[in-house]
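Standup notes
- DV: blocked on the single-chain target, sequence here:
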Amino acid sequence: MHEALAAMVRACDQALDGRSLDRSVEIVGRGSLASRFPVTALAVASIASAGAALRDLCEEAPAPRPAVTVDRRLASFWFRSSVRPLGWTIPGPWDPIAGDYRCRDGWIRLHTNAPLHRAAAERVLGAHADKEAMARAVAPWGRSELEQAVVDAGGCAAEMRSITEWASHPQGQAVAAEPLVRRQTLPATTSGWHGRFDPARPLAGVRVLDLTRVLAGPVASRFLAGYGAEVLRIDPPLWEEPAVVAEVAVGKRLARLDLRSSAGQARLRELLRQADVLLLGYRADALDRLGFGPAERAAMAPDLVEVAIDAYGWSGPWAARRGFDSLVQMSSGIADAGMRWRHADKPHPLPVQALDHATGYLMAAAALRGVRQRRHGAIERSRLSLARTAKLLVDCEHLASDDEPLAAETDEDRAPDIERTGWGDARRLRPPLVIEGVPMRWDLPARPLGSDPAAFL
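- DV (later): unblocked, structure below
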C-alpha cells in the first residue's frame, strides 16, 4: 500500500474507531487521478471506511464475515460522476459568473450557483451578465477586503491562500485542532432496535432524514440508500441542483418543506420523531434560529443518530460561514499548491470535488457506526467538515502515491441495468465497493427534487 493511502486509511480508521481497514479491506486496480495531492488515495480510504462500517454492521448477523473490496479506478471515477445519460444531457455545474477572479493582490473565487448567493455578490460588485464584466468589477478590490464584503452581504467567496497562510489563519488553526470525525456517545433512552435485520439489505427498515444539499451529504445518503435505507430528502420550496441531482438523488424519496412556515416546522417535528438517522448539512446556527437546535432535537428525538457537516469546521471565527468544496480548496491552500504544481498562472483545483465526496463517504461511515451503536443501546452524534477533510489531504501531500494514470473508462465499467431517471434512461458505473453477499443497489431511480410527499412510508 502506498504511503499516502496507508496514512489516510490510518487516519480514517482512528477517526471512526475502526478495525484496521488496511488489513480487512482489499484494494484492487491501478492508477490515480492526476493531481498535486493523492486524490485517489483519499477516494479509496473514504469509500473503504464506509464499506468497513457496513461490514461491521453485517457481522452482527449469524453469517461469515463478508469480504470487502474497493476498486481504486472505479473509486476515482465515482468521485467525478457515476451516471451516464442515454440521449440526454446533464446541465453544466456553474452559474455564468461563478469562478476565479484576479484582484489587485491575488485571486478570489465567487460561488454564485444559488440565486441568493449571486444576488449577494452583485450587491457588492454590481449586476453583470458575464465573467468578463465581473472581472472588471473585481479587479480593483483587495482579495481579503472583497471576500469579507461578499460574506457580509450573505454570499459565498474565498480568497486564494497558500497552505502556510491557512495554517497561520485563526480558522485554519481551529480546523487543525478538530478531529476528522468528532463523535459524541450517549446512552439511549430505549433499549434495543426496532425491525428485523436482513444481511443482504442491512439497512432495510432504517429511516434516514436527509437535510443536506450539494454535495457531501447527498453522497452519504446515496450510499445508505444503496444498502436498503429509506432515505427521505427534504429541500426548500425553490431549491434546485440541476447539475448534480441525477447524480445523487438515486434511491431516495424527495420532498419539499418550507421550514419558515408553521406547517413546515410541524411536519419536520414529526419526521424527526420517526427517523432513525439525521443527516444535517445546515450551517451551525441555521436550525437554531428555526427552533430546531441541538437541545430541541434531543427533546423531540432523544435516540436519533445524527451526522452533521459544515464547510469550515465547528469552532473558530468561521464556524457558521457558508462554504462549498471549491471555496474550501481556495481557502486551505489546495488551489494555490495546484497552481504551483502545474506552473499555471491561475488557481488550479483538484480534478474532482474530492472534499465533498470523501466527506460524504465518511459521513456514511459515521452514520453506520451510529446505527450499530444504537443496536447496542448507545446514541452517537458525529460532526465533520470539508475543511478538516482538506487538512487530511494536505497532510498527505508529500507522501508517495501511485502516479500511474488511470486507464480510460470502458463499457465494462458500467452496470448493465438501465435506470429510468426523471430525465431519461441512464446507466450507472459499477459500484467501486463490493461487499460479498451485500450488493449495492437502489430501489428508486433518480428523479427531480420535490417528487414525493414529505413522509416516510
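- Follow-up: The first strand starts at residue 25 and ends at 28.
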